[in-house]
Amino acid sequence: MKKNKKSTVKMSSIARKISVDFNLRLLYVFIWLDFIFVIFRIELWRFMTEAAAKGVTSFEELHYISLKGRFVCDSAKDAVDFMKNLCYEIPGVTEVVPAQGMILETGIILVVMLSAELYFVLSGFLKGGRRVRGKLAPLNKLAAKTQIISSAGFDGDSFHALEDALSKLDANDTECRVSTGNTELQGIEAAINNLIERMRKSYEQQTRFVSDASHELRTPISVIQGYANMLSRWGKEDEKILDESITAIKTESENMNRLVEQLLFLARGDNGKNSLTVERTDLAEMMREIYDEYRMVDKTHVFELKKSETEVITYGDHSLLKQAARILTDNAAKYTPEGKSITLSAYITEDGIPAFEVQDTGIGIPSEDIPKVFERFYRADDARNRKTGGTGLGLSIAGWIVDRHKGYFRVSSYVGVGTRFTVLLPENINDKK
User: How confident is residue 342, by pLDDT bands cut at 50, 70 and 90?
Assistant: First the structure.
């Protein structure tokens, strides 16, 4: 019992180290994001203030703004007094502009951001060790099994053979297996090899997820920093560069916001915090709503709706099911050339299963890539990259939603012809255990 307790303590220590390292990295990213936000907001306020003070009323006159103003404070007994007296002085303009409002707004937004970030970091520090220990639980079981084995009646040779096989394992060898050739140990060998394979796959998946998430977050931050530096150096004098920079910063901010929201959705899903509101849902009516929405907002594709003669009823979370249908429709629009058709439908299958479907006439997916499309950050080919505006998380979210409803996908695709995603759901999610 003492050995088991010692092993558990050691594993808890390892779990804490892994959790602390990850959360420190996350804290570092948050600090950089907050710093970039504050600098960007101050510079934007200066730009807008000087434009208003100089009477700039048209976009063509923006290139006259050179940001030559400076912050001044006549007297400051303390921090509150400093904030009240801080003003922005613009050369050529007699009146100074109070900066108190901008500081308050920036401070409030920063406090909200810091509160949310602090919550996630503290939650990671408090619960991260337990989550990692959950992932390492198979090792605890292995230790317990080893303890049982050590007290079993194997002869010395069998015991040494198993020990030698374990000592020869190479963590860098993806094909490493435990094999002693002893028939008495075959069951134990199979259990250990199965555990090693599951741990390897889990580690590879998590490593790729963290790496891809870091890459996806690093890219928009780098773009925003690049354009901010260009604006600071010479972009203020060039209307074309100014317009390009503002558009790029806005686009990358929206991309980063969408990515963070999707990561949070999946994180809450992994932690079991995304609850379902089960209600009666007509899938045919849901697809008609999506059809009307996309006909209005997307004029570059031809949307078609196959109307169902009857209601297609299921019991599930209407908003989440609609989100999954929107993800599939967005995906179809991204990879379908302009002018081509996208067909939406909902129906009852011959087996009496409620289903909804999105079919496009786009670039298609190679057959060998179809099983991987629901993996996080996965993209089938070079055409499925950031130029399409995607993050590689949409289908993962749709897959999570359908899985929570105890449904499943049927995916049919041919390269150059198109793709059809069919979602099949139980009539009531409580019907299947």
Answer: very high
Q: What angle do CA 154, 158, 161 make, to 5 degrees?
A: 150
Rounded-to-integer distance, Cα 268 and Cα 274, Å: 6
Tens of pLDDT, residue by residue over 87-100, are 877 777 777 777 77
Amino acid in position 145: K
Helix axes 2-53, 186-233, angle to 10 degrees: 20
Element of type H or E holding 377: none
pTM score, two decimals?
0.47
Residues in the chain: 433
Burial of 227 (0-12, 13-18, 19+ CB in 10 A): buried
Residue 85 has a CB neighbour count (10 Å cut-off) of 16
Extract the tokens encoding 381.
Answer: 């080919």
Q: Helix or strand or coil: residue 127?
A: helix
DSSP-derived 3-state class of residue 408: strand
Structure tokens at 111: 């406090």
Distance of alpha carbon 382 from the chain centroid: 20
| Gap between the Cα atoms of 178 and 192, Å rounded | 7
Neighbour-count burial for 361-397, b at 16+ CB within 10 Å, e otherwise: bbbbbeeebeeebbbbbbbbeeebeeeeebbbbbbbb
Helix (H, G, I), strand (E, B) or coil at 344: strand
24 phi and psi angles, rounded to 5 deg: -65, -40
